[in-house]
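Progress against Task 2.4 (sequence-to-structure conversion) is shown through the following example record, which the project officer requested during the mid-term review.
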Amino acid sequence: MSKNPAPRKIRDADARDLKFRALAADIRRGILAGTWAAGAKLPTEAQLAAETGLSLTTVRRAFDDLVQEGLVVRRQGAGSFVAVRQPVRRRSRLTVGVLLPDTQLYYPRVLQGIEETLSAQDVGLQLATYNYMPEREDSSIEFLIDSGVDGLILVPTLTGITDPQRRVRDLMSLDVPVVLLERSLMDLGPGDRTEHVCSDHQGGAYDAVLHLHGLGHARISLLTRTQTPTEPAIVAGYERAAADLGFEPQLFRVLKTDWEDGAPEEVLGQLRQSGASAALVFGDREATLLEGAARRAGIRIPEDLALVSYDDELADLAEVPLTAVAPAKHRMGRMAAEILLRRLAEGEDCPIHQVRLRPRLVVRESCGAKRQSAHNEEE
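Structure tokens generated for the chain above:
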């Protein structure tokens, strides 16, 4: 396996996904542009299938997406119609809109921190998700603004797009204050005027490598899944640690989907050939799969190979509980909400907050160090 695997060919299922998303995006643009007014009847699924040459299944999936977003409503026996948006009702209290990629694994603790902080100040919360589909972000943000929110906490897509700086400028120019969460323009330095609260993923990766090196490991590899917002910072932290500690970086990048197709065994073989005695693995699921491959190969964790995973969502459930880098998710949500509320209260008099929270290292059996006593994330 090379360090930079070539992109795989798009499978038929992937192609169908692209087609239904493209159709949904076309209809969405038409609705938002006024091509179909609120309450107007949309073409039938059969008509759209005939006009576009797409299958009925593909057209139906596109409509399902738009119904889920609240842009389209289906009426039994009548067809599909553009949803009529309810007028914004006057409120006696503030409401904050929150946009998340999803509410699975990483984000429940973040959302809990936001909810607790807002609730304590009697501030309402309006939530929207886009399921890691960038094409849904704008309509989700428009939904939040149309619902009358006073400010926004956003986790937008800033990697893999043509112009992230322009995207950030557009977000910061919305009609309500915006705080970015776990997203910032890393390379912009002092030119970054966004208000944000982020994990210091570079620092988290650096600390993990430092820990493994302190246990006597001279060759430490990094295994990452590609095409994620967090990966560049983890790579940067790992490479800086390698430079500071004086060892040659050994970086293995694996497509996220390939972890289901024999990648753990292949990567494990490369690790053993390279002479690495330890590895930082992003994230918990991948580290758990690697553990399983090691057990099947008769390689002991941590005696033959020490592991540290990244995220600490499922790390303690592994067969050999994983030492893990643990971002301060709950604290991050709390701080994002506090900063937005301060901005709403003080307006232009409030200084710009740019906060980075360095993750903790939670030591368990997989690295061979003495396990730390159990404790909860500091509140």
